[in-house]
């Protein structure tokens, strides 16, 4: 189960990845094949996202050259890097 603090970390990582690419929320929505309101809600951490939605967004960001390094051993964390 994704907790509120996990959602905040995930939303920040997606915003950072999108920013590193210079993408707008609409760009991410188009590439991930999700709606603009879905991207906005996830980035604002207004609700717990569906796994499929997160997978689509992360997949689109990774395809564009963003790397996500996940930490779960001592709490949840994500390191975002641009691999160009």
Describe this structure in words.
Strands 1-2 form a two-stranded antiparallel ribbon. It has helices spanning 4-21, 25-32, 36-43, 51-63; strands spanning 66-71, 77-82. The model has no long low-confidence stretch (mean pLDDT 88). The chain is 56% helix and 14% strand. Strand 1 and strand 2 (77-82) form a beta hairpin. It has a single domain, classed as 434 Repressor (Amino-terminal Domain). Helix 2 packs across helix 3 (36-43).
Q: What is the CATH class designation?
A: Mainly Alpha
Q: What are the secondary-structure elements, in order, as H or E?
A: HHHHEE
| Quantity of strands, as a count | 2
Poorly predicted tracts of residues = none
- The domain tally reads 1
What fraction of residues sit in β-strands?
A: 5-15%
Question: Structural class of the secondary elements?
Answer: alpha+beta
And the CATH topology? 434 Repressor (Amino-terminal Domain)
Count the helices. How many?
4
**Largest sheet properties:** 2 strands, antiparallel
Please, what is the CATH homologous superfamily? lambda repressor-like DNA-binding domains
Strand order of the largest sheet: 1-2
Between the first and last Cα atoms, what is the distance in angstroms?
Answer: 33 Å
Based on Cα principal axes, name the global outline.
globular
CATH architecture: Orthogonal Bundle
Structural Rg = 12 Å
């Amino acid at each position: 189960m994704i907790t509120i603090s996990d959602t905040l970390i995930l939303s920040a990582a997606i915003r950072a990845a999108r920013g590193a690419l210079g993408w707008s929320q609409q760009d991410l929505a188009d590439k991930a094949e999700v709606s603009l309101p879905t991207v906005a809600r996830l980035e604002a951490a207004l609700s717990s996202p569906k796994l499929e939605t997160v997978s689509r967004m992360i997949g689109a960001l990774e395809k564009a050259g963003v790397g996500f390094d996940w930490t779960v051993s001592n709490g949840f964390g994500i390191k975002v890097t641009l691999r160009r």
